[in-house]
Amino acid sequence: MVGFVGDWYLFYVAIRFFINHAWLRGILFLLAFVVIMYAIAMNVIYYFTNKTTKLDPSPKIEKLLGGRRVGEEQKKSQPTAPAIPANGLFTNDQILPANIALNEHEQANLNRVIKQLIDQQLLIVDYNQMSEKDIISYNRKEKKTSFSSQARSNGPVF
Predict the structure, then answer these.
(1) N or C, which end of the chain has less CB nearby within 10 Å?
(2) Would you tell me the crossing angle of helices 2-19 and 23-48 to the nearest 10 degrees?
(3) Cβ–Cβ < 8 Å for 133, 140
(4) Phi, psi of 39 (to 5 degrees)
(5) Three-state secondary structure of 16-53
(6) Is 91 helix (H, G, I), strand (E, B) or coil?
(7) Which residue, 14, 152, 132, is CA-closest to 89?
(8) How far apart are CA 148 and CA 146, in angstroms?
C-alpha cells in the first residue's frame, strides 16, 4: 500500500518535470513509475489471486538463476532449530565453576526477580514435565542436578 501511494508521487513529480520542460528527468521518473507500478500489479496478482500472467517475469528470472533450490521442500518439513542463548551454547566442560556469596538482602532481591520472571512466564519452572519420581531417579542415575527450568528456556539477557 505504501509503495502504491509513493509510486503515484513519482508520477506527480514526473508530470511537474514535464510542465517545467525538464524532459529527460520527466521521462526517467515516468519510466520509474511504470516499472514500480508493474511490480506492484504483479505482487497483487501473485499474492491475492491464484492467477498468473503472460507478462510475469518470475519464471524467467527463476530459470536464469538456476531454478528452485535443492532440498527446499525438505527444509519446510524439518522442525525449527532449538533456541540458542545469545551469549553462546556451551558444554559443561567449557564452563568455569563459580560460587556466589549473597547476603540476606541480595538473596531476597534475587528471589524477587526470579518470582517476577516466573509470574511473567519468562522463566518456565516445570522440571521438564517430570514427576517427582522421575526427578529422583534422574538425579540418582545421572548424578547431576535436575534443573527446574526447561533446557530451552532462555532467561532475559540484561
Answers:
(1) C
(2) 160
(3) no
(4) -65, -40
(5) HHHHCCCHHHHHHHHHHHHHHHHHHHHHHHHHHCCCCC
(6) coil
(7) 152
(8) 7
